[in-house]
Amino acid sequence: MNTARTRATMKDVAARAGVGLATVSRVVNGDANVSEQTRSAVQNAIETLDFRRNDSARLLRQGIAASIGVVLDDMSDPFFSTLNRAIETEATLRGTLSITASSSNDTAHARELIQALCARRVDGLIVAAPGGLEQSFLQEEIRAGTPMVFVDRPPEGFEADTVLSDNFGGAVDGVNHLITQGHRRIACLSDGSKLYTVQQRIDGYWQALRGAGISAVPQWEHADQSSGTSLADWLTKMSRWSVQERPTAIFCTNSRASVAVLRALRASDTDWPALLCFDDFELADVIRPGISVVAQDPAAIGKRAAELLFSRLDGSAVGSQGPARAITVKTRLIPRGSAESPTI
Questions:
Q1: What is the topology classification, in CATH, of domain 10-49?
Q2: What is the per-residue pLDDT across 124-150, written as a single tens digit (0 to 9) for each?
Q3: CA 256 to CA 235: how far, in whole Å?
Q4: CATH architecture for residues 167-297
Q5: For the chain, what is the radius of gyration of the CA atoms?
Q6: Burial of 325 (0-12, 13-18, 19+ CB in 10 A)
Q7: Contact at 8 Å (CB) between 250 and 262?
Q8: In this entry, which stretches build a coiled coil (predicted)?
Q9: How far apart are CA 253 and CA 231, in angstroms?
Q10: Domain segments of the chain: what residues?
Q11: Looking at the chain, which terminus has fewer C-beta neighbours within 10 angstroms, N or C?
């Protein structure tokens, strides 16, 4: 259920204060030609209704630069830098300033950044909320009239405009590709992240195995941080398993896990299993054979997120206060050789 309430309007303020719209406008704009009694009544109505003036649509129509805030993870990550460039392009086309901040996946810092941008009255926000962030304050900002779009991870506990990759479906496609190559013992390795995206990919991994009638083997799944055992140590342990037990293929849930696995495999003396990674990464196509990946489309995510936000700001949504919308951006399987050969 959409829990966002309708934002109070100047008409609501006028009705509560018992004055006309023109009077409310004069008070809001600081006009001195208003009696103290009337000004007090209007101010009380504003506070009671939590009214905030929203000049976004008027500014956009007049061609006056508005501003949006963008809070993402580490901007050195190619996924987020590409996503941000797409947002900036859409904002520039609309004469809007895009103010970008990096949370470094730190919940306290993310909260500070979002609150600071809201305090500066940006016209809207695009947010990739870190895992573990207590999000009730975000819901309050939306209720107060700040349009917000979530990217990469959905909001927790309430509904809002969201643009996500098809993490579950992409993982199913990737693991099914390994299965079609003849693999039945497929490991799933992650960096231990508690993010929604990683969990969706792990769920997709298990779904693909079940769909192929492959019995689940819990030790095939390993998360680096949560178990206290590094990916390198796990791979060393795996190399000691019998040939009948050892996975013949590895599915990595994100680029960080992929790079860690590649380094560990490069340093080992064992034959490499087939490898398929969720999310493309730099040099994946340069290694020989190239690393097969399930590629996301961060440019499309950024573009669609900006379009959703501006549709709220310029009133072109089905009612700018309409229900939350969710967009899922498809992933793309790119076979490069590492998943198509038994060893690398």
A1: 434 Repressor (Amino-terminal Domain) (1.10.260)
A2: 999 998 887 888 888 888 888 889 999
A3: 16
A4: 3-Layer(aba) Sandwich (3.40)
A5: 25
A6: middle
A7: no
A8: none
A9: 13
A10: 10-49, 56-164+298-329, 167-297
A11: N
Dihedral of alpha carbons 22, 25, 29, 30, sign? positive
Percent of the chain with pLDDT over 70: 88
82-111 pLDDT tens trace: 999 999 999 999 889 999 999 988 889 988
Instruction: Tell me: pLDDT of 171 over 80.
Output: yes
Measured CA to CA, the distance from residue 246 to residue 223 in angstroms comes to: 17
pLDDT band at 165 (very low <50, low <70, confident <90, very high): very high
- Which of 77-91, 109-123, 288-302 has the weakest average pLDDT? 109-123
Calpha distance 269→208 (Å, rounded): 30
Domain 167-297 in the same topology as domain 56-164+298-329: yes
pLDDT greater than 90 at residue 285: no
Which residues lie closer than 8 Å to 249 by C-beta, 6 or more apart?
178, 181, 183, 185, 186, 187, 273, 274, 275, 276, 339
Residue 184: its pLDDT value, please? Answer: 92
Please, are residues 309 and 147 in contact by the beta-carbon 8 Å criterion? yes
- As given in the structure block, the two tokens for residue 62 are 């007049």
Pick the CATH number of 56-164+298-329 from 2.30.42.60, 3.40.50.2300, 3.40.50.300, 3.40.1670.10: 3.40.50.2300
Q: Give the model's pLDDT for residue 53.
A: 65
